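Section 5: illustrative case.
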């Protein structure tokens, strides 16, 4: 039986304050969250929309060191840029705060301390690399060395960016500190861990049995993690930027950013509503919804709920409608390569066109799979849909009413079949859109809203009231009354999706705020109601504007390719006889599975022409296992066996690395016998 809630708390993933927001963030998190919140508000429901900047963690300290400033300088700059961009774009947060606030520091400290006092953590002492020259323990990204697999000399302590293999710092050959350049030493350090394995039982029941309605990508990723078995996760780390661990003997340690950041939802609510925040987080009659991207599913569906459950007084999320990723012009968005459409730059380059981007991102929303944004599609959707359909219908209805009835709503007369068809379409619009929005299907809901505009546009084209005006003004009055009622309904149904143009349309209709409950009605504009002045709701975007954006991306792609070539120059010549020592062969993939507890590793069973060979490869971020079964791959057959995550790997699968870090497995152009040599 469906539960009814008194109120809804909506959170959106906290953007990381070491760079601006781009369209991938908008499509994945903020636009759908804003649509949902605006929809609930239009229905008159009690809803709170919580946002804020995530301002701790190693990447911020790295940027600060590169720029020669403090971490606080970095987060201050980007927090302001992100917050201002969201406001201008119309993301309607009730509060947008930050994790460097005093309220957050106190809230996160108190949260940790309560779990600590309840015995919800375990303590572990381990050896980690320490930079004696810098006088600090080193995060994995601060350790650089030679990759033991592909021998890239600049592999990080957590991953080799060249071959994609997941690493631990102790696997690196000749490791050195990225801070001082010195060779680090191993030192003992103590940390606190959240034992997720203790929570596995109730998490399995809560997610897999009680929330089968969650999106398949969310449910599937959770099931995969639970099936592999949960492990304790460190909640503290050795770092000088973050919230100090509030325990004696924890000097030089801060709360791990993954633990600290989600508590920001709570602290930001507390900052907004210091006296009533608990009803939004602890009342069982409150519904909690998290809007996130797919890279945050585990944290919001498993880790954060485990934290809340361990604390004991909080509600758990009712739904986590996570989206997949948005690509840009067929290539994955990359902040490090500047391959992105940045929100603050879009607002500068396309002033007054917030709704165009909102519309296009929703139309291309990556709800079930990764999707693509292109500037040509952006232009086409604006010109062919917003301008030619929605805007055209609104303009014709208002201009004709101005021309024939002095800008007043005319009285309808007898209805004909074509009128009844339109009225029937209108009568079901509310149910159709609500059903989709309640299921977090924003792309389809917006499509239904645009269908209503298409119906109106076709209605005017089919009835041609400008021709009837010569002979039958009563008929014209009926057509324009129905058309104006359609326009008023469009102002209601599009408000969650296109708030700026909706505001403009309401002024043109001289329409006061109308609640969602009246959607589908034929009496939104009474007979004799005086309309405002008609003007264009949207305007065409010309080729020059789009060519400018495409050219900018082409320049970025060229610069990235040149930088990649310089960073990975052709190596010095080797003797031909040395090359001949490599035994490169073709094998057929018989089986391919993910390696448990290793996000980046795949285990292959390969027919090498003689036997079945096992190879472990760090390409799980680039391929689903089922994509590779039955394919032929090139591999080095005469490397000494090496154990990875307890699996003996006999060889290396060859991949080409694109300039964006994407790996593509090398395959022969046509089928050959397994074991064939590559010469």
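Designed sequence:
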């Amino acid at each position: 039986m469906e539960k009814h809630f008194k109120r809804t708390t909506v959170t959106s993933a906290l953007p990381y304050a070491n760079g601006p927001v781009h369209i991938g963030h908008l499509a994945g998190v903020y636009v759908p969250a804003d649509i949902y919140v605006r929809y609930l508000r239009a229905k008159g429901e009690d809803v709170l929309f919580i946002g804020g900047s995530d301002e701790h963690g190693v990447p911020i300290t790295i940027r600060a060191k590169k720029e020669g400033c403090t971490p606080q300088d970095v987060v201050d700059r980007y927090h302001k840029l992100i917050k201002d961009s969201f406001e201008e774009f119309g993301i309607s947060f009730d509060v947008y705060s930050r994790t460097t606030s005093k309220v957050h520091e106190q809230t996160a400290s108190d949260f940790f301390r309560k779990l600590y006092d309840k015995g919800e953590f375990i303590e572990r002492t381990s050896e980690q690399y320490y930079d004696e020259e810098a006088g600090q323990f080193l995060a994995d990204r601060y350790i650089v060395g030679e990759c033991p697999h592909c021998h890239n000399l600049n592999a990080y302590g957590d991953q080799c960016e060249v071959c994609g293999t997941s690493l631990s710092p102790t696997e690196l050959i000749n490791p050195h500190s990225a801070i001082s350049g010195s060779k680090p030493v191993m030192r003992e350090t103590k940390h606190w861990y959240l034992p997720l394995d203790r929570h596995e039982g109730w998490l399995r029941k809560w997610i897999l049995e009680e929330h089968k309605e969650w999106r398949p990508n969310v449910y599937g990723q959770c099931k995969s993690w639970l099936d592999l078995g949960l492990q304790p996760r460190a909640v503290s780390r050795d770092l000088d930027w973050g919230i100090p661990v509030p325990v004696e003997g924890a000097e030089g340690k801060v709360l791990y950013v993954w633990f600290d950041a989600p508590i920001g939802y709570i602290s930001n609510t507390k900052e907004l509503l210091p006296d009533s925040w608990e009803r939004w987080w602890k009342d069982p009659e409150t519904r909690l919804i998290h809007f996130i991207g797919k890279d945050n599913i585990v944290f919001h569906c498993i880790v954060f709920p485990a934290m809340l459950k361990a604390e004991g007084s909080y509600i758990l999320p009712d739904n986590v409608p996570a989206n997949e990723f948005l690509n840009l012009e067929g290539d994955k968005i990359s902040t490090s390569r500047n391959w992105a459409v940045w929100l603050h730059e879009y607002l500068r380059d396309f002033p007054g066109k917030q709704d165009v981007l909102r519309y296009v991102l929703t139309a291309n929303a990556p709800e079930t799979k990764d999707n693509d944004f292109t500037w040509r599609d952006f232009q086409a959707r604006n010109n062919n849909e917003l301008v030619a359909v929605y805007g055209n219908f609104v303009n014709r209805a208002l201009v004709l009413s101005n021309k024939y009835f002095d800008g007043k709503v005319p009285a309808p007369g007898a209805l004909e079949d074509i009128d009844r068809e339109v009225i029937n379409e209108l009568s079901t619009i509310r149910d159709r859109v609500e059903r989709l929005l309640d299921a977090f299907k924003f792309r389809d809901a917006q499509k239904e809203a645009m269908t209503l505009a298409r119906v109106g546009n076709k209605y005017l084209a089919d009835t041609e009231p400008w021709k009837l005006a010569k002979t039958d003004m009563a008929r014209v009055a009926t057509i324009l009354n129905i058309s104006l009622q359609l326009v008023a309904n469009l102002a209601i149904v599009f408000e969650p999706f296109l708030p700026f143009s909706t505001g403009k349309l309401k002024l043109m209709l001289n329409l006061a705020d109308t609640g969602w409950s009246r959607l589908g009605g034929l009496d939104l504009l009474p007979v004799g109601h005086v309309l405002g002045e008609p003007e264009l709701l949207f305007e065409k975007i010309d080729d020059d504007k789009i060519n400018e954006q495409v050219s900018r991306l082409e320049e970025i792609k060229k610069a990235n390719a040149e930088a990649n070539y310089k960073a990975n120059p052709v190596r010095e010549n080797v003797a031909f006889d040395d090359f001949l020592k490599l035994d490169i062969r073709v094998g057929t993939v018989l089986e391919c599975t993910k390696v448990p507890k290793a996000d980046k590793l795949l285990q292959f069973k390969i027919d090498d022409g003689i036997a079945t060979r096992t190879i472990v490869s760090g390409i799980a971020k680039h391929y689903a296992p089922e994509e590779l079964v039955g394919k032929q791959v090139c591999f080095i057959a005469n490397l000494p066996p090496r154990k990875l995550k307890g699996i003996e790997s006999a060889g290396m699968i060859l991949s080409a690395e694109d300039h964006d870090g994407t790996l593509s497995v090398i395959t022969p152009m046509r089928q050959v016998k397994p074991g064939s040599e590559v010469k």
